[in-house]
Write a structure and sequence with these properties.
Helices cover about 35% and strands about 15% of the residues. By secondary structure, the chain is an alpha/beta fold.
Length: about 280
Amino acid sequence: MIIDSHHHYWQYNPVEYDWIDDSMKAIRKDFLPQMLKKTIQEAGVDGVISVHARQSIEETDWLLDMAYENLFMKGVIGWLPLTQDDIEVHLIKYSGEKLMKGVRHVLQGEPDPEFMLRSDFNRGISLLKKYSLVYDILILERQLPNTIRFVDQHPCQAFVLDHIAKPLIGRNELSPWKENIQELAKRNNVNCKLSGMVTEADYEHWTPEQLLPYFEVILEAFGPDRLLFGSDWPVCLVATNYKSWADLVRMNVSSLSVSEQTKIMGGNARRIYDL
């Protein structure tokens, strides 16, 4: 089964989605399950994991409601108030939700560079394993050193890094992202999504050859047992179409054995998120 481990939905409005700037006009519209269902069928993808695009409990509930109505939605990465004193009340509330597979916080948008090291945030993270929840790490490449310090506080927590930590592909810069990724990957409880790469390059002029060094670093660092295919649909649409991205990932892992390719294209997502 091929699983897209990372996509979003939204009912677009310019206030809640103010990050969709003028360079991303193509995605200033609604993106909902029926559109994605048709899209993944055309790309030979069987199921998806839906990730929040707004930091609210309302968003988490909305995703779960849609997941129960759409069988191709295999799991949800929601948002919960991890820094609040009553976080365990929320975790208990969602513990019966079989499609709730993990949580995420938009660390890349936090003005405090040490937010992920705060004691209240880490207290919330420390409770996730008890409720069998994965934590998705959304950061920019400059946040990797603090991310290493962060994950080292939770050696038994399952982590999944989104978008290979958003390296500066548009500038063709590998370092210090490469060295920091290699260090982070030494932690066996950290996994990584092959997603979000085209939107870190020039939307109109990126090439597969430009992305190849980043694929090579990630494949070597994490190996086939800890990598997951993800589309980042509909964000990816500003730079490519869904099928083209899926085909590019398939091409870049084609030198691996069939069983290793199967893990990356769905098996690892099924295992890590307990689909």
